[in-house]
Structures are given as structure tokens and as C-alpha cells.
Amino acid sequence: MSRSINLAVIPGDGIGQEVVSQGLKVLNAVLPQDVKLETKEYDLGARRWHRTGETLPDAELDALKGHDAILLGAIGDPSVPSGVLERGLLLKLRFAFDHFINLRPSKLFPNTETPLAGRPDIDFVVVREGTEGPYTGNGGSLRTGTEHEVATEVSLNTAFGVERVVRDAFERAAARPRKKLTLVHKNNVLVYAGHLWKNTFDKVAAEYPQVTTDYLHVDAATIFFVTQPERFDVIVTDNLFGDILTDLAAAVSGGIGLAASGNINPTGAFPSMFEPVHGSAPDIAGQGKADPTATILSVALLLRHLGYEVEAVRIEDAVSADLAERDGTARTTDEIGDALAVRVAG
Amino acid sequence: MSRSINLAVIPGDGIGQEVVSQGLKVLNAVLPQDVKLETKEYDLGARRWHRTGETLPDAELDALKGHDAILLGAIGDPSVPSGVLERGLLLKLRFAFDHFINLRPSKLFPNTETPLAGRPDIDFVVVREGTEGPYTGNGGSLRTGTEHEVATEVSLNTAFGVERVVRDAFERAAARPRKKLTLVHKNNVLVYAGHLWKNTFDKVAAEYPQVTTDYLHVDAATIFFVTQPERFDVIVTDNLFGDILTDLAAAVSGGIGLAASGNINPTGAFPSMFEPVHGSAPDIAGQGKADPTATILSVALLLRHLGYEVEAVRIEDAVSADLAERDGTARTTDEIGDALAVRVAG
Ligand SMILES: CC(C)[C@H](C(=O)O)[C@@H](O)C(=O)O
Ligand SMILES: CC(C)[C@H](C(=O)O)[C@@H](O)C(=O)O
């Protein structure tokens, strides 16, 4: 059987190029001989926008569709007005390819930093909805720039959209040893959306009697993230709450340098996209200081998604061992990539 | 000069009654002899709703208007459907009395708990907008309960509403030693509301050259709350982001048992309302286990609002001294109230 991966690579801005190079290095090292890896790089991001004014032309969007998956570095630069690349490129990809599962695991590896005293045992995954909520770009502004301006943002939530992500989260919870799923929302204030989420959650829960369920308001959830993060196993939540909670989750479990993510379309209708949760960090770009681990862990999620479970685990074990054996000496982006490539190949 | 305070008291649900009693005890102890304190208790909350189906009848709303200020314990009970009391009572008061400043100070007192390693120096205040954003109840649901349901929540933001809270925050920042103000929003995704907030912030900033300003996306802000909370002085933000951030702030700075808040209408057109950030905690209600300190610190905010600055500081100093001299022995709600009443009188 001959196997192949046809990968699109979007290095993007800032440290994106550096971390993506290491991700590809480790991907090459971990793949079995018989798997043919083809990669095509797409020049999208701040430079492209400055050059041509384009964020994601249709031709490129079409071309991206033909790949098995996408590896993305980071998008965003202070020279571009806020929102232009986020909405025109990153979110456009997530929406165009219907990435309704935004998967963000958090694990506090040994010998890593956490601001929390006592190093709690953190090992949970946030299943963030990726195509609805306040992220749909459904808003507007009236009498813009005047003292009578009114600006709106509409959170859109559909039974279809909520049920598919809730089902996915139950499946993931059922497959984990602790089998626990927490819904996070704010249904005491956002009563319409909250009602839809909670009712859907309760309905699907009836099909998964083996999964223990729980509900938390988003404000209360942030408290538990810092006082009792070990209580979480799988969390399912809305697009915006998921955005906020996963940065906090990254902060308490080793820092944003280790947080991986997958923008997944489980139906396979479109390629899924894998990216570190961190941004483009322009302040340290080009200096070999960026930690590529989050990107390398995102490659593990990519492999798992494409069915290469053994290779995914090999990367995760390599990261775990690498972190455990660190002696505190600062390493360059390249050195970390090399060390992990050696481990996964070995 | 004879002075008086005509106070409305809404004990509410769960531990509300217990903590409010201690708040009143300390208020009585701290007030100078010449100040006449009148209090009137309002029976609102879960019991009332079960009895009569009412959350906040017009007659009561009218009567409340006549007071100088309101002291509220906690609202909410598991026996009442989520949202009924929150929207029908608590938020109704905040909106009816135009409490556009939701003031939430965070300070890590000595000898208190924090989940953060290294006990960072936390002393900031969140100025949360209180009358707009996703809290306006502007949403709906179509084909409710069917597989075609669509539920919306609209965040409403006006130049008027944003500017008045931003101005208030600049005033507060200018009056503090560090003179630093951070705007928190998500203007790379919520571009319409984000644009209004950021533009208003920049415009008002020009009038306060002595205030250092900063902008953070809400997701990034949660990271700094746990890795570098000492960087914050005053934060101004939207209703929902403020809700989320202030629970996290409470968690890192001594716990929700110490977090005070004021729902303030600085124009004086309506009475302002002071309440602990914590909820009704029905699991420990009636057991004398609740910590009344958050309510007592809310009484300090109430006094400051009414012009009793000396008395406000006396309560805050008493809390600080009380916490510093704690020896770890568990104390009842009453004992804590007694100890603080003695200190402020002394
Ligand atoms: C850059 C931004 C649009 C994005 C988001 O809000 O989803 C980022 O914060 C993330 O979490 O991937
Ligand atoms: C009870 C709830 C409506 C309220 C809010 O969301 O504002 C609470 O969480 C708070 O922070 O005071």
C-alpha cells in the first residue's frame, strides 16, 4: 500500500516561518518510509497584503481545498490594521472549510512552567465551536464616528451547528478514561443561545450514559481553571468562550509556547488546519528564539487526524521526554526542532 | 450638620442574608454618631418568586428609587430556572438604575490564598461597563426546540455608553499613583464594537496625557492575569469581558470570598448598588460558613460612593489587618463580622 500526504503550508507572519520549518522537520522525521509527503507553501499574510492588498484570493482558497491538510504558523502583524488578516485570512479559512471543531488540548508536562502553585495535574481538552457564535462577522455600525454611533455584534447559533460540536465532544469524552464532559456557557444572561446549547447538550447526553456531565458559567469556569484545573476532562463551548478559555488554559499549562490546536472538519469535506495557539510574536521574529513545540504538537494533531495515530503519539512522547530532560539552558528554535526530530526518528 | 443614609437592603438568596447582616453590623460600627442610618429590607429573590411569581414588581422598583444606595447579598437558587432571577431582578436593577460603572477592585491582601506561585503584587481595579454589550437581552430564537432552531444574542454598543465608562476609567486611572489604563476587548474579531471602543478610548486618551494606556485582546488579558497581574492598574472593558475577567481576578487575588463590587450610577440620578461578586452558594447557606468579607468590602465601596471616604478606608484597613493577623483557625460568618466591627469602631 502506498500512502501519501499532500500538505499545504502557510507560514504566515512573524515567527510563523521559523516554527513551521521545525514542524516540517519533525513531520519528515516521524513519517514511515512508505509515506510520500508533498508540501506546497502559500504566501499569505502581512507581506502579501502589503504587496497586493489581498488576504485570501479565491484562486488560493480553491487550491488549498485540494490538500489533505493545512499547517499554519501564525497570522498577524502590527503594520496591518487589526481585524484585516484575522477576518480576511485566518477566520476566512476556518469558515470556508467549515472547521467546526476547534480542538485545543491542555496538558501540564513535567518540568515546564506554570504560574500555579503546587503544579496541579492538568490534562484536558477544549472542544471549541469554530463556525458560529460572535465570530460570524454579523454586526455593523450606524452613524460611525459620531456621538450617535451604535455598533452591534450578533452571536449566531444554530441547532445544526451546536449539535454537531456537542456530539463530537461527547465522542471524545467517551473515548477518554475519565469520560467527563463540561459544558461552558453563560445561560443565565445569554438566555437564547444558552438555552439552545444547554438543551442540545442535555439531549445528546441521554445517548451517552457513560459520560459524566457538568455545566459551568464561563466566569465560574475561569476560577476553576486556576484553582482546580484537574477537575476538567473534556470541555465543550462556544467560539468566543473557547477563545478566551484556551488562552487561559495555555497560560496555566506550560505557557502559550506549548499550546497546539486543530481546526477540524471531521466530515473530510474540506482539509483541516493545524496551528499553534500563539500568535506571530513580531517582537522576537527572526531571532531563533521562538519555541516551535506548539507547532510540533500541532503536527501531532494533524497526523492523528489523518490516521497516523502511532506517529502522533511518537511526537507527543518525544515532546514529553524532551521537556522532562531539559536542563534550563536556553535553546534556539532550530535546536529544539533538531532534538525532537532525533527523538521521533530514533 | 445632620447627616443620614437611607439604605435599601436586598439580602436575596442562599448566603445573602448571612453576609448582609455582617455588612450592616460593620456599617453601624463604622458610622460616626451624627449619621442617622435608616435601612429597609426588600424581600426579593427565589422565595418571593416561588411565592408570587414576581421578580421585581414596579412598586418595589419605585420604592427602591427613593433610597441613597442599595446593599445586595446574592441572587440565585437552583430551584429557579437559570436566567429568571438574573435577568428579572439583578440585571433589571442594574439596567433600570443605569449602573453603567460596574466597579471591581482586586487586591491580594497579605496572608490570603492565591493559586498563583510567588504571590505577585496584585492591586488593580476593573471598570466594567454595566448597561450595554451582550447583556441587553437583545436576542431571540427561531423554530425553538426544533432541529432548525436559530438563536441569537446581540451585543449593543453606543458611543454614549462607551464614552461615559471610558471617561470614568480615565478619571480613576488619573487619580491613582501608577496612572495606567488598559482597554480590553477583542477588536480583531468583533470589529464593529471593537472599533467603537478603541476609537473612543484613543479619543479620550488625548485628554489625559498623564495616563499611560495599553490595549489587550481579552484572550491575551487572561494570560497576563495569571502570569503578570502586577502589570495592571485600571482596566476598562465591556460588560461580558468584565464579567469573565473579574471572576478570574477574584480567583487570583484571595478568592471570590473577598471580591467586592459596586454597580454605580455616578450621576446620582438613581441609587447605586453594592454587592459581593460571589453568588448565593446554596450548598453552604445557613451554616455560618460564608465569608462576609466581600460584602463588608462592598460596604466600603458604598461609603466611598456616598462621600464617607474616611470610613471606607477604615473598613479596608480593618480587613487588611484582620487578614494579616488570621491564624488559620476557621471562623464563622458572625465571628468575622464581629472582629471587623470591633476593628472599625476601635
Ligand atoms: C487571531 C484570532 C482571530 C484568533 C481567534 O480569536 O480565534 C486567535 O485568538 C485564536 O485563538 O486562534
Ligand atoms: C449573576 C450574573 C447575572 C452576574 C453577571 O453576569 O453580571 C454575575 O456573574 C456578576 O458578575 O455579577
Tell me about this structure.
2 copies of one chain form a homodimer. With 346 residues, chain A is of the alpha/beta class. The first copy, chain A, folds into 2 domains: 1-99 and 260-346, Isopropylmalate Dehydrogenase; 114-129 and 156-253, Rossmann fold (3-Layer(aba) Sandwich). Chain A contains 11 helices and 12 strands. Chain A has helices at 16-30, 46-52, 58-65, 84-96, 159-174, 191-205, 218-227, 239-252, 293-305, 309-325, 333-345, and strands spanning 3-12, 35-41, 69-74, 101-107, 123-129, 139-142, 150-158, 180-185, 212-217, 234-237, 260-264, 272-276. Chain A has a 10-stranded mixed beta sheet with strand order 2-1-3-12-11-4-5-10-8-9, sandwiched between helices. In chain A, strands 6-7 form a two-stranded antiparallel ribbon. In chain A, helix 1 (16-30) packs parallel to helix 11 (333-345). Chain A starts with a strand and ends with a helix. The model of chain A has no long low-confidence stretch (mean pLDDT 97). At the A-B interface, helix 4, strand 6, strand 7, helix 5 and helix 6 of A face helix 4, strand 6, strand 7, helix 5 and helix 6 of B. The complex binds 3-isopropylmalic acid (2 copies). One 3-isopropylmalic acid sits between chains B (86, 90-91, 243, 277) and A (188-189, 219).
Largest interface, with Cβ-Cβ < 8 Å?
Answer: A-B, 69 and 69 residues
Biggest sheet statistics of chain A:
10 strands, mixed
Task: Please tell me the total number of domains of chain A.
Answer: 2
Stretches with pLDDT under 50, minimum 5 residues of chain A: none
Order of helices and strands of chain A: EHEHHEHEEEEHEHEHEHEEHHH
The assembly state of the depicted protein chains is homodimer
**What structural class results from the helix and strand content of chain A?**
alpha/beta
Q: Nearest-angstrom radius of gyration of chain A?
A: 20 Å
Number of helices of chain A: 11
Mean pLDDT of chain A: 97
**Ligand species:** 3-isopropylmalic acid
**Strand-residue proportion of chain A:** 15-25%
Shape of chain A: globular
CATH superfamily of the largest domain in chain A: Isopropylmalate Dehydrogenase
Beta strands of chain A, count: 12
